[in-house]
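Backbones bend. To wit:
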Amino acid sequence: MPESSIWIEKHRPKKFEDIIGQDGIVRRIHAFIKDKNLPHLLFSGPAGCGKTSLILVAAKELYGENWKENVMETNASMDRGIQIVREQIKDFARTRPIGNVPFKICILDEADALTRDAQQALRRVMEQYSSICRFCLIANYSSRIIDPIQSRCTIFRFKSLEAKDLNKIIEKIMKDEKLKIDEKAKDALVYIADGDVRRMENVMQSCSMINKKISEDSVYEIVSAARPREVKEILELAIDGKFPQAKEKLLEVMLKHGLSGLDIIKQIQSEIWNLKISDERKVELVDKCGEVEFRMVEGSDEYLQLESLIANFMRNDKKS
């Protein structure tokens, strides 16, 4: 299977102009590349928001055709111990770069998975070889990176992509892949992605294998998720005091889409904010969702916990 057949690679940005979203960060990194001077970097933020794509674009722009010889890309979650730092990373960092750029780039993806000992060893390597090697650490949670490393890096905090940016990416892929996607399907893709471009592109590719015309139904079928209106209907029935109907609808939705209790609880939590109830009640119900999710994770019966959540909706309704 050729690499280009995977859309998350095929539609990965090749130039700075191709990157959609994160405008402020992109401008600053582009300025570093123009000056051919890059500090140690720490990119933190949620999955699928362009962290790895941006540093790869920067490397290609900086080194041109020789970029692969001057860049080491490793995933710290595969080998998170001190040995990878002492061997692979140190061996790469101590050799001189090829070409007219005075330093190489070591990209450490999922750096927050490194053990504390490995991070301490990495701190020393960053100090020793900073003149010929710059590091770009990519993490979902910057708080898991030790302070001595954070103080040596310029930190950029990425955010999930907004709906307008996701829609631009959908339009671009539609044009490139000759797809037809109606407005409801676009809204469904944005909802399912929740700011994660990688997830959205995987769903689009899966849908396109069946039909080049992508509909709202096909999107929800592929991801096995309940539609927002279905979840909202369950909650509104509960608020109206119709417990048997709410319970029946909940079971129907879970069986229809093959959802676990943890899947549906996350959708319920999102839909609470769209209900026509007071903010105080919304906060109480979100708090209850957190409690129910914790009990599920600890091994409690999913259906029993979800029924207790629905009952809590009704109880809150009577309090107001």
In short: The chain has three domains: 22-157, 163-223, 228-319. The longest strand covers residues 133-139.
